[in-house]
Amino acid sequence: MSSPYIPPPDATWSDGLLSLLVVTETFEEFLHELTVATVAALPEGSMCGLTVVRDERAVTLSTSDALTLAVDQIQYRTGEGPCLDTLASGQVNHIADTSAEPRWRSFCTEAFAHGVRSCLALPLMAPGGQVGGYNLYNTHPGAFKDVQARMGLYAGTAAGAVALSLRLADQSKLNADLRATLASRSVIDQAVGIVMAQQRCPAEDAFALLSRASQNRNLKVHDLAAEIVATVGGQAPGPGPFQPHE
What we know:
alpha+beta, Arc Repressor Mutant, subunit A, 2 domains, GAF and ANTAR domain-containing protein
């Protein structure tokens, strides 16, 4: 898929990001296209990554290229760098030249060895708070000197789109978890019905028998239920009556 055109960061920039959310098919694809579109507005030799905090750890969600991910990993491994500082403080961090930057020396030394000379870390501030950070790298020193204000506009608008995409991704996972839970419940209900018929007992007694048997065999209740349904029905259980086939 070719990268959709994203206009410059003016009144139509947010419209472009919303269009990008619509035309990309997955959460990952949207974030990748966002990094690619950002690079297109940066000086030559630039790279872009998006980082968020999940389970108290910084995680790179998407990058425009492989080198950006490698440089992000240097920050995570050394425990220092402009992006990590931005995630913690919500402040912009700029490195004009990694060979001369006195801060984050462990990071800067390795980044320089990878050919990265300048860095710009911008917070992604959505209405609900900071959702992550923009990591911008360039192979030339001083590359971001004249674009900080403009990229601040990019980050400010992109934050809302990233926050929305994260919410949609979380909702998608929630829906997948719910489908899995309903499917598991359906198999257990089928097994309970079989035990009720075999033992001529009410549902609560049938479930208690199923639960004890699963403990005795060191199996999950769902796995034992699936085994019972497969044995009686002659095939593995399918989705329940309210569960759509994938």
